[in-house]
User: What shape does this take?
Amino acid sequence: MPRHSRKVAIITGGARGIGAAIAYRLGSEGARVAIFDIDGEAGLYRVNELRSSGIDAIFVRGDVSREGDVVRCVDEVLKIYGGVDILVNNAGIGSSGRHLFDQTLDEWERVIAVNLTGPYLFSKHASRIMASRGGGVIINIASTRALQSEPNTEAYSASKGGLLALTHALAMSLSRYRISVVSISPGWVDTSRWAYPPREPRLSRLDHMQHPAGRVGVPEDVAALVSFLASEEAGWITGVNIVIDGGMTSKMIYLDEDIISNSAEILIGVQGLADALKKILSDPSKAAETLRILRSSGII
Ligand code: NAD
Assistant: This one.
């Protein structure tokens, strides 16, 4: 019997990317799948794709940050499929990448609304249905950026950090109803093949080789973990965050001579770096300026 036979799953942001791969995986393992997404065109495309693979699927259009849309989705799923067993809070948006000094309050509030308020609203309304059916699983898709940051990512990192805290808070509130709540923090996942429309990945050797696991992640990596966490085999797991990132957050990075010489093969292979150097050296004014900077820094 397929792992998720007869179960009902809601996947937010299921029209493309990681959410679409999760919908496909759960659907392939017998679940009836409702994808909820703000993008109507991509949602219809995806639901047709799922159905053409023999998956029982519906699409509900809406915005995770609007309680009315969330309630409408849960009601529709209840009407069509009779309940909810698995909720995957996957919909998310990035921040602008603007420098902290130039970020706007609107930008902050929108990222928090989609990435944190959305999962709160869906969990609140779907768990009521799960509780009345004797249990369920809520899986929140966070990010390794909940744990570590690059500059100028305040709203996104804070929203995902909040999602980790929301996960353990929900796990405690809902344990009495036999509802498990976990979060997954993916690292870099290339979603090209699950984009709308799908496209070929454009990754360099460096992108792959800097990962201890030897490659950038794909949505199927996350979907496989979701499938396990949503299954009965994961019944003793709740309230925790699971990192899936090819080893990147465990990798200690201090630049020294060894790391540079060990990475020489990768660095030489960086697409564009050799070309950029050639360009600089063939332009006398740029070459002179580059040499001046290298000399004044004491590098040469
Ligand atoms: P994506 O942009 O490819 O897909 C996100 C989907 O969510 C889209 O279909 C979009 O229309 C939908 N969406 C956006 N705002 C919405 C809203 N307000 N209401 C309903 N739907 C909405 O993103 P992805 O890369 O597949 O990421 C999925 C999740 O995984 C996100 O939460 C993201 O933060 C997280 N994540 C992604 C990566 C990565 O490298 N791709 C890494 C870590 C975490």
Observations:
- The two ends are 67 Å apart (CA to CA).
